[in-house]
Structure formats: C-alpha cells, structure tokens
Amino acid sequence: MSNESAEILLSVRNLVKNFELRASSGIRKTKRIVQAVADVSFDVKVGQTIGLVGESGSGKTTVGRSVLQLIEPTSGEVFFQGQDLTKLSFEELRNVRRQMQIVFQDPFASLDPKMTVGSSIAEPLTVQGIAGDHDAKVKELLDLVGLAPDHAQRFPHEFSGGQRQRVGIARALALDPKLIVLDEPVSALDVSIQAGVVNLFADLQKRLGMSYIFIAHDLSVVRHIADQVAVMYLGKIVEIGDKTAVYTHPTHPYTKALLSAVPLPDPKVERSRHRIMLEGDVPSPVNPPTGCRFRTRCWKATELCSVEEPQLEVRASGQKSACHFPE
After folding, report:
1. Residue in 257, 213, 194, 176 with CA at minimum distance from that of residue 62
2. How far apart are CA 109 and CA 104, in angstroms?
C-alpha cells in the first residue's frame, strides 16, 4: 500500500476517446460519434492500486487500454514517469511498454492454444530482445505465481481457468513492469478461486512494488485490493478518492446505489439495510443525456441537473464527486 508522499508514476489528464460509427441507409451515409471516455483524469502513485468500477459500458476498459496506448486516445495526456505517451513515436513507445503490461479478462482467449505455457511467458522477452536464460526466467515466474516449473511444457488446455490466469500474470511480469492494468482479471473465474488470484495480486505488489489499475464491476473485490477508487458512469468519473472514504461515506447517488448492491457477510445487517434499485438502463453513449449523465436514473434529479453538468468537487469526507446534490 502506498502513502501520501509516494511518487506519482502515472498521471492521466482530460482523457477522451471517441469511436466513429458509420451507417448507410440507401445512398445516404451517416456518421455518429460514440464518446466512450469523456474528460477522465486521475493519478497512480508508485506501489498504489486504483480501482476503476462501474457498470458494463461505463468506459473502464477503454480507459485502461488508452492508458497503455493499445488504442489511441482522441485527446488528453497520459504521463508515465514524466513522459507523455500520446506524443511518443512507435519505437519510443515500444521501449516504454516494457514497464507497462496488461492482464486480460478472459484467460481462455488470452493464451495461444498452440504455444506451450513456457513459450507464452517467454514471448515478451523474445519480442523485446532481452538476452539471457529465458528458461530459467520462465521457471522463476511460474514459481512466483504459484505454479510448478514443469508446467512450462504444458499447453493452455491442460489448465483450469485460475491456473491459466496465473500464466497470464506470469507473462505480464516477464519484463519486470512498474504498472499493470488488470482488466477484470477475476470476473471470468469461479467465485471459489477469485480470492486466491486477488490475494496473489496483493502479494506480488507487496514483494515487487508494482502499481495497478484494477478494472472491475465487483466493488467487494476492489475494496480488498485498491488504495483509491474511481467510480465511472457513461464515460465519466463521478466519484474518486481514498477507498475508505468512498466505501464508508459515498457522496454520489450512483456510488451509493452500487454499494447498496454489495452483499454483506452479516445476515442480520444484510436483511435490515435498504437496497437502492436503479430504474432503466444506462443511456446510449451515442446520445448521452444533457447536464448530468446520471440524471435519467437518479432519484434526486431536478431541472438544474438537466441543464448544468456537475463538476468534480472535494467533499467533507475527502473524496471528489460530481453531483449538484451530494449525499
């Protein structure tokens, strides 16, 4: 876990990512813009984890991939160790990518079924031209993630989902990165093995000092590993701050609704608490609501919410939230 004086490793400023949709109707062609990420800013300190949470379609994964430049941002700045990644050439970016890696959501799709586990883990070393004994490095990485060295000779289909995800983690660690984007890394796994993988992430961070961007829709998982939490809705961050403040004193109605859906281990407390049911679906990012994007599902919405977009402001409990009528 990081402290307040820790050095900032990653700084994202005013990140925007638009996707263009083209449709044709007879001889007419129309173009629509989907704003997947809208003016997102946050920092990640050395050894810190920030959790990006929200419903499907909120823009979490797009933020993670834009940070790594796997997709090109429409605008904004992404500073990694002081360098703006959006302005680097392909070769410059390739060198920086040694220090930034990703663990994908689906451990079944992220590994080549025709390659042995050892070959998959060693591939980043080969691509980056790293000299040395790759076999020894692979065995070291397998041991680090809780797998046996002889697993290097096996193929992905011989492993369970949890084991495959551990292979993906080993591959991400091959180049000794300083930042790893964890894109819903446990959502495709059985509940019984999710805790083991999350504990592995925490242990690796403690031992290696890496920083994480942990993308998830399960707030209980994020609470276990994150230092900071950013809640996203329809491409925007609506609340961001220290984990304790966000979870104990949520100030945005959307955050409060999400937390009310997280089951509690005490049956007595669980039965007595009020569950907030959001009505309707998330609006289309092609045509988001005017003003506050959450207003169409918010029980506090007034005319002000439809004409004026709320800005992120610091609240009494320390976090920032974007709401005209905070909790």
Report:
1. 213
2. 9
Q: What is the pTM of this model?
A: 0.90
- Could you tell me if 166 and 154 are in contact, meaning their C-beta atoms sit under 8 angstroms apart? no
Residue pair 14/74 in contact (Cβ under 8 Å)? The answer is no
Distance CA 65, CA 69 (A): 6
Amino acid type, 103: V
Report the amino acid identity of residue 19: F
Q: Tell me which residue of 273, 279, 309 sits closest to 296, measured CA to CA.
A: 279
pLDDT reported for residue 8: 95
What's the pLDDT at 2? Answer: 43
CB count within 10 Å of CB 222 equals: 26
Per the DSSP assignment, residues forming a β-bridge with 240 are 230, 320
Closest CA to 44 of 218, 236, 166, 177: 177
Determine the pLDDT at residue 108: 86
pLDDT at 123 over 90: yes
- Provide CB contacts within 8 A for 275, sequence distance 6+: 260, 261
- The Cα–Cα gap between 229 and 222 comes to 8
Enter the tokens of residue 242: 């220290």
- Say whether 142 sits in a helix, a strand or coil: helix
For residue 289, what is the DSSP state? Answer: P
Q: Is the pLDDT of residue 27 over 70?
A: no
Q: Name the one residue in this structure whose structure tokens are 């609240």.
A: 315
Looking at residue 1, its pLDDT comes to: 45
